[in-house]
Amino acid sequence: MWDKMKESKDSSGGLFLSLKDGDKKIVIFRGDPYCFYQVYKEKEEHKTWAEGRSFKFRLNVLVRDGDVWKPMIFSQGITVAGMISDVKEKYGLNTIYEIKRKGSTKDDTTYNIMYERALNPDEVAKLETFKLLALVRSEGQPESIENKSSNINELDDIPF
Is residue 15 domain-resident? Predict the structure, then answer.
């Protein structure tokens, strides 16, 4: 049972996009980020900065898994936020990107976000049907993010 639980957690079956050393994923960023501050390894989130708190964000993404796009949540800190802001400013949100992780610890991990290609108008129109996932923790469920979307199924009919 414990092995099955670990396997399920590691298979990206959850809502959060998680990359390990050397992993790369093809993604499309969607919507606006949710920003907050947090003390490392603590679950409590704060709206304002204070000593010991670090900037964090969550952002909706579509992640390509073979020919299927899956809605997920990408959560990171200030460095990756700056990278996403830079590529968004240059290429926009209607773009496919590759995210790659190098490193395995908090102190040696870096991410690269690279441009793949722009979406065409038909592809952008299809994306408008994607319902964004809730990025804010719900009252009464402090350790999980409630999915308020009624449709988080895989998007296998997007032809790109």
Answer: yes
Range(s) of the domain holding residue 62: 11-39+49-127
Local confidence pLDDT in tens for the 160 residues of the chain: 445 444 444 444 589 999 999 999 999 999 999 999 999 888 889 998 999 999 999 999 999 998 889 999 999 999 999 999 999 999 999 999 999 999 998 889 999 999 999 999 999 998 888 889 999 866 443 333 433 333 334 444 444 4
Residue 88 lies in a domain: yes
Cα 11 to Cα 65: distance, rounded to the nearest angstrom: 11
Q: Report the distance separating Cα 115 and Cα 29, nearest Å.
A: 12
Residue 49 corresponds to which tokens in the numbers above?
A: 């900065």
Measuring CA to CA, which residue among 80, 74, 46, 81 is closest to residue 60? 74
What angle (nearest 5°) sits at the alpha carbon of residue 101, between those of residues 53 and 52? 10
Number of structural domains (the chain) is 1
- Of 135, 11, 4, nearest to 61 by C-alpha is 135
The dihedrals phi and psi of 75, each to the nearest 5 degrees, come to: -130, 130
